[in-house]
Design a protein that fits this description.
about 180 residues, alpha+beta, 4-stranded antiparallel sheet, two-stranded antiparallel sheet, 6 strands, about 30% helix, Prepilin-type N-terminal cleavage/methylation domain-containing protein
């Protein structure tokens, strides 16, 4: 006398998953998980690149704004010393003028500034190091009735390691400052 009928024996394997089905499901799940993780890591690196770019641009614009508002005669010095960077006194040395300031020259004076944008004061390996090159050109033209004026050109560059490529990012900002009498 058999306890099991034919029907119950044939349907016994249909109630669960076989080892092959579990392995295929785990493989698909791991592939989806790996793809998601890769996408998140790439997004994080791109975000860090944007943070670096925005920080460098903001610091460069801050230097230009300070130069536009300082005493005009200080722009004719070999170094611009009445600047503030991260709450501390700062100085930028002025490079000799060249034909193409965006390309630079061997006579450029590098002003390397290190910014701790990751808020890790004990670890300077993750700091953003920006190289500033400053040109101040006298564009006074009395024949055209242009008074005392200076063209201020600030070129900055940094190495962006956020995408693991180590590409050098360079940009140039230009402004004009005139000596306007105040009453």
């Amino acid at each position: 006398m058999a306890i099991f009928s034919k029907k119950s024996l044939s349907s016994a394997g249909k109630d669960g998953f076989s080892l092959v089905e579990v392995m295929v499901g785990a493989l698909i799940l791991s592939m989806v998980g790996f793809g998601t993780l890769s996408g998140l890591l790439q997004a994080r690196r791109m975000t860090q690149g944007s943070i670096n770019e925005g920080t460098a641009m903001t610091v460069a614009q801050g230097y230009l704004e300070q130069m536009k508002n300082m005493q005009f005669s200080l722009l004719d010095e070999d170094s611009v010393s009445e600047l503030i960077n991260q709450g501390s006194a700062d100085t930028l040395s002025v490079s000799p003028n060249v034909n193409d300031p965006t390309a630079g020259a061997s006579s450029d004076i590098d002003n390397i500034k290190s910014l701790d944008i990751n808020n890790t004061p004990d670890d300077d390996t993750d700091d953003l190091k920006i190289n500033f090159v400053l040109y101040v050109e006298d564009i006074t033209d009395t024949s055209s009735q242009v008074g005392e004026a200076r063209r201020i050109i600030l070129r900055y560059s940094y190495t962006d390691n956020s995408l693991l490529s180590g590409r050098v990012v360079t940009d140039t900002l230009v402004t004009v400052r005139s000596d306007v009498p105040t009453f």
